[in-house]
Amino acid sequence: MGKAKEKKIARTIRRNWKDWVFYAVIVCIPVVQFCIMYLGVNFNSLIMSFQTYDVNTGVFSWNGFHNYIDFFEMLGTDRLWLTMLGNSTIAFLVAQFITKTLAIFFSYYMFKKYFGYKVLRIILFIPSIISTLVTVVVFARFVDGALPALFGMERGGLSNPDTTFFYILFYNVWIAFGPSLLVYSSAMNDVPPAVTEAAKLDGCGSFREFWNIIFPNIWSTYVVFTVATLATYFGNNLNLYSFYGPNADTKLYTFGYWLFRETELNKATMDNYPFLSAVGVCFTMILVPIVMLIRKCMLKFGPRPD
After folding, report:
1. Residue range 157-198, pLDDT digits in tens
2. How many domains does one find in the chain?
């Protein structure tokens, strides 16, 4: 009995050891990638923000806080920052209160399996699985080609400086439906059917069912999307680079587009990378406490399923 038990323990140890080896092999790849592509890149950006780069010698040297000083001086003198602040704020508000509201509405429509929900799901999800460049070309041709020809307009919405930003926002609302629909629909499907059936027997209408049952149950998902949207406040470029490359009108600039444009234009020499790193660090220091505070408040004061 003793030897049999020892053999059984040995087999268990060997099996567990193989399982741990397999687990380590599978997990080590994303862990290494996270360490290099996230921790390493961000640590390098932090160090670079205190340096300057000599294009002639290709050497980084210590520069103290000069990049941060230049950033704050630019804030007070360059009016472009006010434009980017306004556009980025509008982009956030549209994403938060228009895109998410419409996504939740259509998700609930599909959750209830109303008429045509399958076709609607396909139509709304298609833009998210097509290349951005393709959807940009199709959207631009439709807005500046088909619509003016159909309604006898002199110029398209993207060609008109007074309406360009509106159509850019509309495009971003349109292509953002897919992922939101997928996640919100999954969250709604996790609501126990017994709860909705009991509410129906009690005479609960669709609006009350959504407001008192469905929405509280998907509140945690809504918080995640809100935090993610706010976290990309300084990184949202509204796909302007796909529309205009580096030549977008300054009236359309957001913080994300400006950062991406400057990084792309300086990639050959890296001359401005230390300054851009300092800007990124400042943006992070501004945004992190705001995101954490809003997340905490939403989880504490938001509706609860019970």
Report:
1. 888 888 999 999 999 998 888 788 888 988 898 888 888 888
2. 2
